[in-house]
Write a structure and sequence with these properties.
Elements: E1 4-5, E2 30-31, E3 36-37, H1 42-46, E4 51-55, H2 58-71, E5 104-107, E6 110-114, H3 118-135, E7 142-151, E8 159-166, E9 173-178, E10 181-186, H4 191-204, E11 208-215, H5 235-249, E12 251-255, H6 258-268, E13 271-281, H7 296-318
Parallel strand pairs: 1-10, 4-6, 4-7, 7-13, 8-11, 11-12
Antiparallel strand pairs: 2-3, 5-6, 7-12, 8-13, 9-10
Bound molecules: 1,4-anhydro-D-erythro-pent-1-enitol and uracil.
The site of 1,4-anhydro-D-erythro-pent-1-enitol has 9 residues, from strand 7.
């Protein structure tokens, strides 16, 4: 699977209008999975967007949008279900609900959308979100993934800010197959974004680290779990792999999207950061259970809130 390293890194920022380099893009496009098209006043509705936040679940991203709405003081430039209602009675509209694949909310200068599980689902929505900010002629946009993960040698509830993302072969690249060829793209987060995310994280919890992230194509075998339906390795092989990832490559957590996310953002020329909470210590167990005796569902929900609270703080401080 080792492709040629061959890539172009987009350069944007400093107030310049965001432009995608794809010469085949036309003026009229349908963002099919977002349920939006270039006929929908994109520049007027989305031209002020500065942050695009993504996470796996649609409910979580709706919750994050509501949290932001409060934290940013109910910004008027949000998209509502019914904008004619008094401000206190308004609810945020799911702008992509009609397409049935993803949810997307606009709160002030922030888009909050879900990406589903894994690079296949993420890449589809990321292509369309990048096209959306291109057609809306946005400036200086940062993309942030807020997610969950399995930690390596970390207490559950610890927040991990990604430095570099590694694939399942322990290489810091995302391999994109196109026209029968494999191309490896780099997978770093933006240094300023990760440093500032970490500062915000430390102001919310003492349990936060910056480290590398293993981004696998599945939850079970590629993350070396023994509890999938199928398993092709021994417990010793599993332990050796996880220990090697941790000791040699500085991997602090495992999830499923950060290689694709960082590689696509870097190619397009937008700053990006990844902040994930660890739900389980993979040096101890495979199963995501919460800590016994404290109400599993509640505790997982509490941990899932941490990246949202930290990201909201980051955005508020950046505006
Ligand atoms: C973390 O959690 C999901 C799998 O449960 C996946 O989207 C990820 O990266
Ligand atoms: N998400 C993952 O991909 N892995 C975990 O261990 C937990 C959440």
């Amino acid at each position: 699977l080792s492709g040629t390293i061959l890539y172009q890194v987009g350069k944007q920022g400093n107030g310049k209008t965001f432009r995608l380099a794809n010469p085949y893009l036309t003026e009229k496009e349908t963002l099919y999975h977002l349920g939006i098209s270039t006929d929908d006043n994109l520049q007027q509705r989305f031209g002020d967007v500065k942050f695009v936040c993504l996470g796996g679940k649609s409910k979580r991203m709706q919750n994050f949008a509501n949290l932001l709405y409060t934290d940013l003081g109910c910004p008027e430039n949000s998209e509502y279900e019914d904008a004619t209602l008094p401000p206190g009675d308004r609810t945020l509209r799911d702008l992509s609900g009609s397409a049935g694949r993803y949810s997307m909310f606009k709160v002030g200068p922030v888009l909050s959308a879900n990406h589903g599980i894994g690079p296949a689902s993420l890449s589809v929505v990321l292509h369309e979100l990048l096209k959306l900010i291109h057609f809306a002629r946005c400036t200086d946009v940062t993309f942030i993934r807020i997610g969950t993960s399995g930690g390596l040698g970390l207490d559950p509830g610890t927040v991990v800010i990604t430095d570099k993302a590694y694939n399942g072969l322990l290489k810091p690249v995302y391999t994109q197959v196109a026209c029968g060829k494999a191309i490896d793209y780099p997978t770093s987060t933006h240094p300023e974004v990760r440093t500032k995310l970490h500062e915000c994280a430390l102001s919310v919890t003492s349990q936060s680290v910056i480290g590398n992230t293993l981004s696998a194509n599945d939850f079970y075998e590629e993350q070396a779990r023994l509890d999938g339906a199928l398993c092709s390795y021994s417990e010793e092989e599993k332990n050796a792999f996880i220990q090697k990832a941790h000791d040699i490559h500085g991997i602090k957590n495992m999830e499923m999207e950060s290689t694709c996310f960082t590689a696509m953002c870097t190619r397009a020329g937008v700053k990006c950061g990844v902040i994930c909470v660890a739900l389980v210590d993979r040096l101890v167990r495979d199963n995501v259970t919460g800590v016994k005796g404290t109400g599993i569902g509640c505790q997982l929900k509490e941990w899932e809130m941490l990246p949202q609270i930290i990201c909201s703080k980051y955005i508020k401080e950046s505006l």
